From TrEMBL:
Keywords: Membrane, Plasmid, Transmembrane, Transmembrane helix. Residues 46-146 form the Copper resistance protein D domain. GO terms for cellular component: membrane. The chain crosses the membrane at residues 6-26, 46-69, 81-102, 123-146. The keyword Transmembrane applies. InterPro entries: Cu-R_CopD_dom. It comes from Thiothrix fructosivorans. This is CopD family protein. Pfam families: CopD.
Amino acid sequence: MPVALALHVLSVVIWVGGMFFAYMALRPVAATVLEPPQRLTLWSGVFGRFFPWVWGAIITILVSGYWMLLGPFGGFANAPVFVHIMNGLGLIMMLIFMHVYFAPYPKLRKAVAAQSWSDGGKALAQIRVMVGINTIIGVTTVLVAAGGRYFL
């Protein structure tokens, strides 16, 4: 269980921390100092490097989470309520990420390649909303994971 827990937490830190940094630090600065061609090119490149890490984090979170759930907890029936909440929120986050990855992200990449800055801006706006939502859900999930056993 210690290995599963360590991998689980590390993967969550990479994913949620990456989103928090991108949304709260990188996005506001990029929006104020870069013109659309540079800003959209930056984001396309940032996502191109970050999203493989997210895929790896998702796989690790699922494997380690269900390893702990099915091992030490003995399945869903024996798991505390906070584990069910964490699981549900995590699955929602994964679905939102998959939407971003398969819908607006390819549009952003295509727009940047074609230098269609208006289309790229629309795609980036969709991604920004989804990443904002996922960041809120991610921080909430961390709070549930860290404090759930004491409050729920």
